[in-house]
Amino acid sequence: ARMGGGDPGANPRLRLAMDKALTANMPRDTIERAIKRGTGSLEGVEYEEIRYEGYGPGGVAVMVDTVTDNRNRTVAEVRHAFSKCGGNLGTTGSVAFQFAEQGVLSYAADSDEDRIMEVAIEAGADDVVTNDDGSVDVLTEPTAFQPVREAMIAAGLEPENAEVTQRASSNTTLNLEDAQKMVKLLDLLEDLDDTQNVYSNADISEDILANL
Question: pTM of the full predicted structure?
Fold first, then answer.
């Protein structure tokens, strides 16, 4: 909301976030309060956006986007989460170079890959990637995300998930012990009141995930 304004009709990212929140049964008043918080329109409160960067277990790169009215409180909470899970909070720029903002539309493994590729590329997508599990991701520039999403839906190809996110240029593979710590770190960071988004380049195999 802070980047594009509090009107979902004029802010595609906000509209998408609201759709996801409503699908997850988040109360509408909670959503409205979050919008006011993001736009800085809560009375008597001034918010600022701060991105924290650090390293998790096994050297995983982590970025945490926050909106806060008290940066001292927020940095203390973020640092505590990293320390508790064997990681450490870094300086600005320490891991951000490993990520790039990108639109991602995700499809299940049984989707029509050829049709997805045909529509996506024609709509302006950068690439269509088939993952190891057979699922398909359509990748776009942030500015092309909404037009591509609308074209896919119009063609009857509604994605399972669609978001503008930070995509890592390479991943860090974790063993079971580090994966357990990493999952705990992500949970702690995502549960912080000031957290908006958490990104990492952690790669946890299906076998290890099954044992978590």
Answer: 0.75
